[in-house]
Design goal:
- This protein has 754 residues and is an alpha/beta fold.
- The protein has five domains: 69 residues, no CATH class; 100 residues, OB fold (Dihydrolipoamide Acetyltransferase, E2P) (Beta Barrel), CATH 2.40.50.140; 256 residues, no CATH class; 33 residues; 246 residues, Metallo-beta-lactamase, Chain A (4-Layer Sandwich), CATH 3.60.15.10.
- The chain is 47% helix and 17% strand.
- The protein contains 27 helices and 23 strands.
- The protein has an eight-stranded mixed beta sheet. Strands 1, 2, 3, 4, 5, 6 and 7 form a seven-stranded mixed beta sheet that branches. A six-stranded mixed beta sheet has the order 16-17-18-19-20-21.
- The radius of gyration is 28 Å and the shape is globular.
- It starts with a helix and ends in a 10-residue tail after the last strand.
């Protein structure tokens, strides 16, 4: 029966993948599953699998239509005043910003974000323990898909959870407690306790706070990214943060305690069964937690009704319920690791400890490379160390620190020191040589690796050893293909209101960035909670470069000193090896921007002006000066048969200086200056360049009104079609030799001169 339950749930997974945006991958999985069912010649299982798949597919289509009908325009903002019911634990605060998911009376879920206006509002949101009704006014619009290639797609993530619209609050907050009704009392009870648990964990010191929030209420501390950096690089997060391992351990402790207290098995098993749904809410409802809870619930329920359920059947039921709760389950890295590794533990044949660890590593590797593009050679060693330490040290220390720490601060500090030392050790281990930036393999290659790994693990030992060699060889070949591409590209990242451009030559011979993006840092009020420094480049240019297997940049041109062009430089220097920075002459002496270099590896800084040799031709500035808009670099290069001009934020006065040289100038592609502001892109300059396409880098709904209608009118008058990152997202020219093709990540507007 165990294999039949498995093959019945696989068609549901295939349908979910097909309708969730990966039609061909889901089709392959469905075909293989149905073929296997037919081969089993168990026709009732075949019919049952088809009926469930068709029913589940119909429900998904109906659900998608409802969400589509609710979805607002992505490009237009709709003023709205809405009334929302908000669970106390759904409010998340970062600095003066907050976001939450609220429920409207018609059942729609809405993602809400805004800015706190006073310390009173902060205190109110920090101490919520009961459901509240919010009446807020704001600007509503549909959720924007990921604007850059391989960037985390928040719109898809929230759509899987039934959320397609967002509201940016523009007015004051009006909220009041509401009483629980018959529909909500159970959930309100557990959400209230989760809110209290989060508040308790927030008061803990250092690493203890990070671990307590992650393990118990399933929340993420502000310091988590820094504290768990080594664990992330070693690929260990899945062991307990998302795998549900801590759930199994806690349930084991409860069962052991009940047995040794001589409690009636019937009563404590029914008690655990009734407790599990509430505990799933209390623990945050993550994919690993839900899987572990449902698997345990199925086994306990079967036992109490006189049946026996094996691990595979419990796993299959958990996957089916998980897909119903979150149809995009299999698109998320955490879910892939949680369900995949737990299935491996169930199905793997008896193996030695070494082979078992290697098998789990090989099973997780395709998902890790597809999700985070890298793998550390010391991961196997780290797994061997951490897995035994987790139930013996990490979980007990976290439990003691969380329960006793608020009463005895010294114990909390000691527990935080133990966990901090553990994290420091992992960070030191992760810093050792062995990290392999692999790049992102194609989906079908990752699937082939996964299928090949499963097949190998079912073979006899001798065949397994020979097969692993071929599997490793395939990884080496794909690594070479990713790292030595035959094509080059010129890519304009969507970094909001800023600039960042990648030029990558074939075989990655030379990698260049022109500006790195960034945002203006506004001073925070003294009452705002501290928040970690975040750089947008981590999710845009750096993430994209790592997906290509690139860990270095030969040249970084910083066109001038404005924050929206150079603000993310620390992230670039920390995550990538940079050979040299090229800046407009005079900027190298300005102390203001050099603070961005503090703590970064030493890098060569080369000032530029017209006549100086560089990888790109320099058209401005003509002499050293202040690196403001008027002193911005203007650069030109030829790639894939096209002549590209990159104007930074150069104004019309600088354009006239270029024209005054009398040199012949021509552009096939013009990145217009200053985000399309009317202070740049003079008609005479455009007329002289005669570009075939213009690119505008500007943020959506930016407060400057970029691009200006005057600039767009100039482009229309000169019959120059244009693309804008605010409407088209990442804009990419991929070339081979002297020919190439254009693509955009978003298609909110096609290139047009009208």
């Amino acid at each position: 029966m165990r294999r039949y339950s498995f093959f019945v749930v696989l068609p549901l997974a295939a349908v979910s993948v097909m309708l969730g945006g990966h039609f061909w991958g889901g089709s392959v999985l469905l075909g293989v599953t149905l073929g296997r069912l037919v081969a089993l010649r168990h026709w009732r299982i075949v019919v049952l699998g088809l009926i469930l798949a068709l029913g589940f597919g119909g429900w998904l289509v109906s659900r998608q239509r409802r969400l589509t009908n609710r979805r607002l325009s992505v490009t237009q903002v709709t003023p709205q005043t809405v009334r929302l019911r908000v669970a106390p634990d759904s409010v998340s605060i970062r600095g003066t910003g907050y976001h939450l998911v609220g429920h409207r009376a018609d059942g729609e879920r809405l993602l809400v974000h805004g800015q706190l206006r006073s310390v009173a509002e902060l205190r109110t949101l920090q101490h919520l323990t009961v459901p509240t009704e919010w009446v807020v006014t704001g600007a509503a619009q549909g959720l924007l898909p990921a604007p850059n290639q391989h960037q985390f797609d928040a719109a898809r993530y929230w759509e899987h959870r039934g959320v397609v619209n967002t509201l940016r609050v523009t007015g004051p907050l009006h909220l009041r407690p509401v009483a629980s009704d018959a529909r909500h009392w159970w959930g309100d009870y557990w959400h209230g306790w989760r809110s209290r648990l989060i508040q308790r964990c927030q008061r803990l010191p250092g690493a203890l706070k990070v671990y307590a929030l992650g393990l118990f209420p399933g929340s993420r501390a502000t310091e988590a990214a820094q504290e768990l950096a080594g664990m992330q690089r070693l690929g260990l997060i899945h062991l307990f943060a998302i795998s549900g391992l801590h759930v199994a351990l806690l349930l084991t402790v409860l069962e052991w305690s009940a047995v040794h207290l001589h409690l009636s098995r019937e009563w404590w098993e029914w008690g655990l069964l009734l407790l599990l749904p509430g505990y799933a809410v209390l623990a945050g409802g993550g994919s690993g937690v839900l899987r572990a809870c449902w698997m345990r619930a199925v086994q306990l329920g079967a036992r109490r009704t006189g049946h026996s359920v094996d691990g595979l059947t419990a796993w299959s039921v958990a996957l089916g319920v998980g897909l119903w709760q979150n149809p995009g389950l299999l698109f998320e890295l955490g879910s892939q690791l949680s369900y995949g590794l737990s299935l491996g533990l169930i199905l793997l044949p008896p193996l030695s400890a070494g082979w078992r660890q290697l098998s789990l590593t090989l099973l997780s590797l395709p998902s890790l490379l597809t999700g985070i593009f890298q793998w550390h050679g010391l991961t196997i060693l780290a797994n061997a160390v951490v897995v035994p330490l987790f139930p013996l040290v990490i979980l007990p220390v976290t439990v003691v620190g969380t329960t006793v720490g608020p009463v005895f601060p010294g114990i909390a500090r000691a527990c935080a020191a133990v966990l901090g030392t553990f994290d420091a050790g992992l960070t030191g281990l992760a810093s050792l040589p062995g990290n392999v930036l692999f790049g992102r393999p194609a989906w079908w290659i990752a699937w082939a690796w996964l299928a090949g790994t499963w097949w190998l693990l079912s073979r006899p030992s001798r065949e397994r050893r020979r097969g692993v060699k071929w599997l490793v060889a395939s990884y080496v070949v794909v690594f070479g293909v990713i790292h030595l591409p035959l094509t080059g590209e010129v890519t304009y990242f969507d970094v909001g209101q800023g600039d960042s451009i990648l030029i990558r030559e074939p075989l990655n011979r030379h990698v260049t960035l022109i500006d790195v993006g960034g945002r203006l840092a506004f001073p925070q009020p003294h009452w705002a909670p501290p928040q970690a420094v975040q750089y947008g480049a981590t999710h845009t240019s750096i993430n994209y470069l790592k997906s290509l297997g690139i860990d270095h940049v030969d040249d970084v041109y910083l066109t001038h000193h404005d924050a929206d062009h150079i603000g993310d430089l620390p992230a670039i220097l920390q995550n990538l090896r940079v050979r040299r920075l090229l800046v407009p002459a005079g900027m190298e002496r300005e102390p203001g921007w050099q603070r961005l270099l503090r703590g970064a590896p030493r890098v060569t800084i080369q000032p530029l002006q017209v006549g100086m040799a560089a990888g790109l031709r320099v058209w401005h500035p003509f002499r050293p000066g202040v690196a403001d808009n008027g002193g911005s670099l203007a650069l030109q290069g030829r790639y894939g048969g096209l002549n590209f001009w990159f104007m930074g934020d150069l104004d019309q006065a600088g354009e006239r200086q270029i024209l005054a040289t009398g040199l012949p100038i021509h552009a096939d592609v013009l990145k217009v200056g200053h985000h399309g502001s009317k202070t740049a892109t003079a008609p005479a300059f455009v007329r002289q360049l005669r570009p075939r396409l213009a690119i505008i880098s500007a943020g959506r709904h930016n407060r400057y009104g970029h691009p200006d209608q005057e600039t767009l009118a100039t482009l229309r008058q000169q019959h120059v079609p244009y693309w804008s990152t605010q409407e088209n997202g990442m804009i990419r020219y991929t070339y081979w030799g002297q020919r190439g093709s254009w693509s955009t990540k978003l298609h909110l507007r096609e290139a047009s001169s009208t």
